[in-house]
Amino acid sequence: MMLMEQTQVAAAALPVAEFRDHVRLGTGFGDDGLQDGLLERVLRAAMVAVEARTGKVLIARDYLLAVGAWRDPGAQVLPVAPVRAITALSITDRLGAERVIPAGRYMLEPDMHRPRLVSAGFLLPQIPVAGQARIAFTAGMADAWDGLPADLGQAVMLLAAHYYEHRHETAVGGATMPFGVNALTERYRALRLFGGRV
């Protein structure tokens, strides 16, 4: 299984000015925007870390999932949530020949933790030996930063501030995430029983 991000969050969608205020950088100087590139990188890193911890895509973007075999012949769990739409499904053989599957043969089963691609009939299309299925989909909690739940937005801000304040440290050790980030993201994490796998 391989998940590939097809689009990135636009720089304009990131709350750089709000983050500048959050870390209390000075304003009113000729070089106010001097650190904007660094602030953007730190915000992106924090957003990726929060997404990895929760399994939730914060700002909507497109993905492509490639799988060599279905784990369930009638459905395939998608590795991130929430999924808004499945935009395409195709089957590729070992020589690279691609067959596009009509949209009427599958559907999205939405779920906040484990959305699935589900067959509209009994089985998903067969994947040939050494071939793969490619599932294109759009996932995200919000179209823009302002649409995010306040607790997740705050978690990104706290973690970004932590990264910014410790950007020169090279020592490894200690907690990987500040306590506040863990507390704010805990309710978004999927509960896995019996060693459940995606």
TrEMBL record:
**Which InterPro entries does the record match to this protein?**
Phage_CHP, Phage_HK97_gp6-like
Residue stretches spanning the membrane: none
Gene3D superfamilies in the cross-refs: Phage gp6-like head-tail connector protein (1.10.3230.30)
**Protein name listed in UniProt:** Gene transfer agent protein
User: Highest lineage ranks of the organism?
Assistant: Bacteria, Pseudomonadati, Pseudomonadota, Alphaproteobacteria, Rhodobacterales
